[in-house]
Amino acid sequence: MARNHVTTTINGDPVEFLCDTEQTLLDVLRDELHLTGSKEGCASGDCGACSVTMDGRLVCACLVLAVETQGAEVETIEGMADGDRLHPLQQKFLDHAALQCGVCTPGFLVAAKSLLERNPDPTESEVRYWLAGNLCRCTGYDKIVRAVLDTAAEMRE
Amino acid sequence: MAAVEKIIENRIDDKTTDSKALKWVGTRAPRPDGVDKVTGRAKFGADTHLPNMLIGKVLRSPHAHARILSIDPSAALALPGVKAVVTRDDFPDQPAGAVQPAGEMIINYRDMTRNIMAREKALYEGHAVAAVAAVSDRVAGQALTLIKVDYEVLPHVIDVDEAMGADAPLIQEDLITEGMDPAPEKPSNIAKRVEFGHGDIETGFSQAQVVIEREFKTRPVHQGYIEPHACLASFSEDGQADLWCSTQGHYVARGHCATLLGMDVSKLRVTSSEIGGGFGGKTVVYLEPVALALSRKACQPVKMVMTRDEVFRASGPACGTSMQVRIGATREGKITAGDATLKFQAGAFAGSPVPAAAMCAFAPYDLEHVRSVGYDVLVNRPKVAAYRAPGAPLGEYAVESVIDELAKALELDPIEFRLLNAVREGVDSSYGPKFGPIGCIQTLEAARDHDHYQTPLGSGQGRGVATGYWFNIGGQTSATLNLSEDGSVALVVGTPDIGGSRASLAMMTAETLGIELDKVRPLVGDTSALGYNMLTGGSRVTFAGGIAVVGAAEDLIRQLCERAALTWDLPLDDVEWIEGEARPANGRAGSEAPMSMAEIAKDMAKSGGPIVGRHSTNAQGAGPSFGTHVVDVDVDRETGRVSVTRYTVVQDAGKAIHPGYVEGQYQGGAVQGIGWALNEEYIYDEKGKIENAGFLDYRVPVCSDVPMIDTVIVEVPNPEHPYGVRGVGETPIVPPLAAISNAVENALGIRFTELPMSPPRVLAAIEQAG
Ligand code: FES
Ligand code: FES
Fold it and tell me: What are the backbone dihedrals phi and psi of residue A118, each rounded to the nearest 5 degrees, phi first?
């Protein structure tokens, strides 16, 4: 079967890859490009561990076909820090102990960044509903929500 | 040896009197593996690739119970790109009775080899029947459809009470109940009966003025770790093998795999990846021996990753139960007797945590007459795996519900009623041993005095309280400190870091050595790096690992003092270790400039060669821990939805090495408990197939379902640990089920005796109550 040739941009870099039509963006990121920071928790859009942005929109990479990224701008967790400077959300997650096992963390960070880009001053409820598509089984969400609220406050300063 | 004794003395003083003297222990220090985990760099189970790697997939039984007449893989093997197929024929059978304790569960290899690959029968829907390795995911998937399995479908049984019935289909035809006197003559699905307690139950009940008896039923739930099981196996032609996997215990996984494959344990090296949650569910092996067998056959590396559907159908879960509890008390509020019968689903193989549940059920109470009886019962469901304080939340759910009803009947405040009967140091526990220093009363008092308990409820709301208990464990543990030539140290441990243990172990190491925390680099070594290590489980790592790292640090200090003594030409007794440096002591104090670790390390070649601190132990004396939870709920009378509006966890940690991660354990356990109480359950159809094997239909709590979770860390030091640590990870999931049920009762005046209290069940009860 002929594979599809896709040209796209990932974390600002031009990227080309070949993929099967049924391969998802998550499959290609992880298995072809070895960008394994995006995680697969369900492959059905229910856990958010694979969260990335595509043309600025928060999506589950497991629900996007890789061929759909032709010409798009994809941002993943690997592109979140600026060189050796962590994004404020990354730093606050560390400061607040907002991760235990850490497997959900990339997805939460990408989703939270997308929230703060749209709403720099969210309420606790807004944070909780925005992040309702990201499952965390370890933390009970408390410290995650605090880290996001604290980041928002700091970034507004 | 003077220097070391001094250290120990200092430490004990710190612990008991002046905890401010501690520099690292008790702080919220940065986590050594943190940056890797916020940047996506950390490698979890499915994140490793090897050249020439194949993809492995499992064919699973579509039937809940079926005899396997034949398996024909020939068409699959003929498919281009398929490199190997394994079935039951590729695993040697294990002798009956080969039983081994592992963590909090017991391992029976005859069962384990049947669980990882069905032999005579498929015993649950999702049971592995064959596996294939192929050049790609797609080819492997196609190959599965070409494997021909001939089944004879058998009647199945899912419910625990039905499985105990005389005419239930037998899951294992030759199973004779253990623990019965006389032993039954006929086989049944009851694997085991256990009994704990003391005194005489009927005497106790005859002294009671109020007796309440209730029956409870709960459904199985899944541990729900976000990372599915994953591994990568590479077997070489000379019989040596490597395995990378997401596991709570790579030494334990190594032992299981070597046994199942019939190879020398030391020929297999296991490296634990970062682990994306386990909660007990990653203490056993599923894919690992299969991937190794496929790799051995294909002579290529094989990677296997479960789908979420497979995780639900074939791993975990925690058991469903049927329970009966009767408790009697005097009018003044003294409990005179407690009696519980607990029937636990083990799944298709024996080994539910019913013994632990029976031991914990009445543990918070000082009782003269108490009995708990447990039955371990086979059903056609996946074999249960440990889930955080395995068994305890269930038994305590039943007991703490009845305790709440008794308090109400006696018109006593539920915390005061518990305080009247609570255990304290020196009391014989309900299951046998005498308690040492414990914090049961302290957590109850802290909950009572907390702002949450003192704040009046909003209209229509309800408040519930429950107390829970877990033993915590110690076990075999090793640690090594390799001193580098610049005086920094690599700390190697053998317990996977599931939630911050690199941080807590490095902090105790730096504290003991008296050096900066960033001079300690903690690493989780593979199985060839250290002596044996039991798994990360039983809330044991900060306790047993702490003893190991402190022991290794003391061993290092002893050697550092020896090198300084040699350099100064002083007797060893005249050297002491203070604040990270060797100093002349006694009459010679001040006679030489102190030597730092860096200075000693720089010249170690001259003073005797490399310096390595080591400690291996089978840690004993784990500190049991109690927790009391307070929860407020709102019930939507129109939809039956229960919302948790406020939640407070109070628990004795012994000593919180890193309070941030201790709070995190409390909060995470509470929220798992909220899911268990309100939503989570396996739903089966009449054929014994799971209908909700995905996160959409098996609903774990999401961020918008829960409030902030308040925490109170009580610290009653455990004298058996250098810094006073008890375990903290499991107790937090013990009280929530009862606390929430008690809160719902308080809100609605309806006592639920079934979990989960999902909206349809709650709505039906409200409508029935009119
Ligand atoms: S893996 Fe994409 S949402 Fe779960
Ligand atoms: S930290 Fe483990 S799932 Fe969120």
Answer: -90, -35
- Three-state SS for B494-549 is CCCCCCCHHHHHHHHHHHHHCCCHHHEEEEECCCCCCCCCCCCCCCCHHHHHHHHH
Distance (Å) from the alpha carbon of A157 to chain B's nearest alpha carbon: 23
Q: How far is B126 from chain A (nearest CA, A)?
A: 17
Arithmetic mean of pLDDT over chain B: 95
Q: How many domains does chain B have?
A: 3
Q: Which residues neighbour B62 within 8 Å (Cβ) at sequence distance 6 or greater?
A: B125, B689
Tens of pLDDT, residue by residue over B605-660, are: 999 999 999 999 999 989 999 999 999 999 999 999 999 999 999 999 999 999 99
Domain boundary among A28, A59, A79: A79
ipTM, two decimals: 0.98
B105 shares its domain with B254: yes
Question: What's the structural domain count of chain A?
Answer: 2
Residues B531 and B611 in one domain: yes
Task: Check if the beta carbon of residue B280 is closer than 8 Å to that of residue B253.
Answer: no
Task: Give pTM, 2 decimals.
Answer: 0.96
Clarify whether residues A11 and A75 are in a common domain: yes
- Nearest residue (by CA) to ligand 2, atom 3, is A136
List the domain range (segments joined by +) for residue B63. 54-154+229-305
**Can you give the residue range of the structural domain that contains A129?**
88-156
Answer for the pair B515, B578: CB distance below 8 angstroms, yes or no: no
Question: Which pLDDT does position B104 carry in this prediction?
Answer: 58
Domain at A13, CATH number: 3.10.20.30
**Alpha carbon distance B250, B217 (integer Å):** 35
Cβ atoms within 10 Å of B345's Cβ, excluding its own: 29
| One domain for residues B570 and B663 | no
| pLDDT tens, residue by residue, B697-716 | 999 999 999 999 999 999 99
Do B130 and B251 belong together in one domain? yes
Say if ligand 1 is within 6 A of residue A50 CB: yes
Measured between beta carbons, which residues in chain A are less than 8 angstroms from residue B33?
102
